[in-house]
Design goal:
The chain is of the alpha+beta class. It has one domain: Nuclear Transport Factor 2, Chain: A (Roll), CATH 3.10.450. The chain is built from 3 helices and 10 strands, in the order H-H-E-E-H-E-E-E-E-E-E-E-E.
Length: about 160
């Protein structure tokens, strides 16, 4: 594969992973339709979700993310294997988040992490996700109470 094309492909795949993470973090799971192939499979079984179509993933994510008031989805240590019209990325994820607990005022600080294995296919519209497998390997829960305002200002 030509060096310039390999670099362009790597940037395109990296942008697609970032767009996926941003869609999850900003409650825009409908974006998965644009980011994935029509026959894509998303596998969230390791975190209690389904293995299924884009529509099934979207439905589960919408319900699951309603309980998560604060989250950041960080996908790091990305390893790319790019072929002509297919690619695979193996990456770690770290997901700091705060979860609402029914009947309690405080939230639970609930960070977790694991791995993604993501398959991609080149289409007429560019690279798209053809398979995404999330393997959550750890998660902890700690009761927290956040004091003060939301501005983050540390006054005198």
């Amino acid at each position: 594969m030509n060096g310039e094309r390999a670099i362009a492909d790597r940037f395109a795949l990296d942008d697609l992973l970032t767009a996926y993470a941003v869609a999850i973090d900003t409650d825009q799971v409908t974006e998965l339709t644009r980011l994935a192939t029509q026959d894509a499979v998303f596998d969230y079984r390791s975190s209690g979700g389904p293995r299924g179509s884009v529509a099934q993933a979207q439905q589960w994510l919408e319900g699951a993310l309603m309980k998560v008031s604060v989250r950041a989805h960080l996908i790091v240590n990305r390893r790319f294997d790019i072929q002509e019209d297919t690619a695979r990325v193996e990456a770690h994820f770290f997901n700091p988040m705060s979860v609402k607990v029914p009947g309690q005022e405080d939230e639970i600080w609930n960070p977790g992490g694991g791995y993604y294995s993501v398959g991609f296919r080149r289409t007429e519209q560019g690279w798209r996700i053809s398979e995404l497998v999330m393997l959550q390997t750890w998660r902890v829960a700690v009761g927290v109470h956040v004091a003060g305002g939301s501005s983050g200002h540390r006054g005198p």
